[in-house]
Amino acid sequence: MRALIVIDVQNDFCAGGALAVAGGEEIVEPINKVMANFDAVIFTQDWHPLGHSSFASSHEIKPFSNIEMPYGSQVLWPDHCVQGSNGSLFHESLKIEFADLILRKGYRPSIDSYSAFFENDKMTPTGLEGYLNSRGLRDLTFVGLATDYCVAFSALDAVRLGFQVIVDTRLCRAIDMDGSLGLALNKMKSAKVSVV
To answer: pTM above 0.85?
Structure first.
């Protein structure tokens, strides 16, 4: 059975948002159109508490700097997707009424979570693997924001967990910071992710 996993199509990642991805809003209607082609539709939602450790403002360092955290290197982002804020909400045109599951991630104050499967320590699970396995959803197609971060991390973890994985880049947009898109695409292809 096939699942569409829609990654973080939220206001803060679309035009006018705190961490807007260029063209992020362009993928909303095309994603809506393909939902009916899948046995299940799952949405992830970035859901950070105020003062999250991945926020540059929490460290008084300029956004997009890198620091070392106990779990490894971490990009420090502008404050975004703060729990309950307008920026944390899904884009208003996204048809979330078709969601089988909405999975919130990044809510632990001391660790970020790019992947839909694990926190950035690559050990603390979100529970998505168990949900997919219990429903027999083994073929996964990833779309959403951003290709080079949350989409790529999710796809790579899915392959590592034994799922069949497609990333449909027509329904994704990237941040592409310092060559991050090319790096992410190469990693996914090397890991046998089918990149469309």
So the answer is: yes
